[in-house]
Model the fold of this input.
Amino acid sequence: MARADVDLVLPASAEEAVAAFGDGAAVTVVAGGTVVMPELVAGRLRPERAILLARAGLGGITREAGRVTIGATTPISALEDGDEPLATAARHVGDPEVRAQATVGGNLCTGASADAPRGDLQAALIALGATVRSAGRGGERSEPVEDFLSASAGRLVLDVSYEDGPRQTGYAAARRPHAHHYTILAVCTARTADAVRVAVTGAGPTAIRLRAVEAAVAGGAGPAEAARRALDDVEGSLRDDALASAWYRERVLPKLVEDALAAIDGAAGA
Amino acid sequence: MPSLTVNGVAVEVESAGLHTLLHVLREELGITSPKAGCQQGGCGACTVLVDGEPRRSCLIPVAAVDGASITTVEGLGTPERLSVVQAAFHERYGSQCGFCTPGFLLATYALLERSPRAGRAEIEEALAGHVCRCTGYVKIIEAVEAALRGEVAAGTEPTEAVTA
Done:
């Protein structure tokens, strides 16, 4: 469909956005546009309906009642000086101009491209134990980021939130120079009084929570020993793309997990 | 129908709202300093100022910036009277083939406005989204430093080669 014929909606509030989105069928959502617009320009995406979230008032970060809540259209640049490991993950996205335009919601909804992984914030948000609030078929829903990622089709992200409180965090990434600065692999860790959470971006089409690693840590394993369990978590899903082969990722991942765990090791109670 | 102020001139946009700002500038308004490079947000050749902030015009649906003020290189200076940033790039040989230059100029202009005392690391970060395939980065950074330090004055008369 030619772009002139697309039914284009510009909701002026969150309520209007949810109503316009409906059950999400045959709707293309444009937030920052950094992922969607190249698809439109290249003709790979030809929507009948599109919703621009530019004026829907879904942006902004609030800290209240013990939670940090980040609106869906908050630009990634707004996270750069915030809580870790989200801040470091945010700084590793694209470049300053792209980060000022790309949104948190878009980063949660994007899957990998054929060439490279995307969604750098996903692993950091999983490590933070974040919850996604979304709208779509059946109404509003709140669920852990990792659950959202496994069934994000037909959902409109409203915000993502996590507990505001002290935690030790780690971030370890394999990177190489590239015009788009895509991340090959990035491991995020976070230790709270309750638990250690570990997740990786770049291993699969979306970020993966490394539960076997977490279980090993909970069982008393040190960083090196726990990191060896990472391959159990990503078995069969390791990406093979233009940035790195699955062979390479398989060898680098345990080392990154070890480094990200070492960053929080012994920090408990600190 | 979106309206924009482009280089100080109010315009009503006729293109469909999902067309990119880059398309509107080049194809509808005939403003050709923003370049259609990769059209994936990766090269920075299409960067313009949206309400003073450098943004990739190839990634912005024009309906999303309804009412915004857009600045392109055409709004920085004239061939007869270059702006500080243009004069610095000219004097310090910061431009080779010229394709990436408009994006670099606008990113530099925004940096000069925001952080006139920026050091080397901040300059490199501000230009991180801009690719020069002539690989003229050494001269580009020297030009940016010259502009920030006020070593080059606006209004410098360019050579014939620049205006041609």
